[in-house]
């Protein structure tokens, strides 16, 4: 599934230089084209993954809208990416799990903290 989507992405006629020129000449047209291209990629995913991709794109758009400039946006989006690689149950952890033969794709149970019972004060007061 992912490989099929990747093959389709590799077969697109994306021209970075043309998009860069469009961004300089006509930022509104660039933004419309960018959104069209993103929608095309998301539509190629399965419905379950589409929902996640829409959510991720929304987060990215919020970062772009709230950042003071394109460089700040790039840095914040890069940090989001690295967090998803390094965080708990992130890409790195999942790759390590696969390397050790865990093909279940399920997160292993984690040990829970010890639960300390809370006592009702009215029961302990005499």
Fold topology:
Elements: H1 2-10, H2 16-25, H3 27-43, H4 47-66, H5 70-86, H6 91-99, H7 121-124
Helix pairs in contact: 2-3, 4-5
Helical percentage: 55-70%
Order of helices and strands: HHHHHHH
**Overall morphology:** elongated
Main pleated-sheet profile: none
Strand share of the residues?
Answer: under 5%
Distance between the termini: 66 Å
- Unreliable spans are none
What is the radius of gyration?
22 Å
What are the salient characteristics of this protein?
single chain; 126 residues; mainly alpha; 7 helices; 68% helix
Polypeptide structure, described:
By secondary structure, the chain is mostly helical. Helices cover 68% and strands 0% of the residues. It has helices spanning 2-10, 16-25, 27-43, 47-66, 70-86, 91-99, 121-124. Helix 2 (16-25) packs across helix 3 and helix 4 packs across helix 5. The longest helix has 20 residues, at 47-66. The mean pLDDT is 84.
Summarize the structure.
This protein has helices at residues 2-10, 16-25, 27-43, 47-66, 70-86, 91-99, 121-124. The chain is mainly α and 126 residues long.
């Amino acid at each position: 599934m992912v490989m099929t989507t990747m093959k389709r992405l590799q077969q697109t006629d994306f021209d970075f230089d043309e998009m860069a020129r469009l961004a300089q000449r006509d930022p509104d047209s660039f933004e419309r084209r960018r959104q069209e291209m993103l929608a095309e990629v998301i539509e190629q995913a399965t419905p379950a993954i589409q929902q996640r991709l829409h959510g991720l794109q929304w987060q990215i758009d919020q970062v772009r809208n709230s950042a003071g400039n394109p460089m700040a946006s790039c840095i914040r989006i890069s940090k989001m990416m690295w967090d998803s690689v390094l965080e708990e149950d992130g890409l790195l952890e999942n790759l390590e799990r696969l390397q050790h033969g865990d093909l279940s794709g399920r997160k292993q149970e984690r040990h829970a903290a010890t639960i300390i019972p809370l006592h009702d004060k009215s029961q302990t007061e005499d």
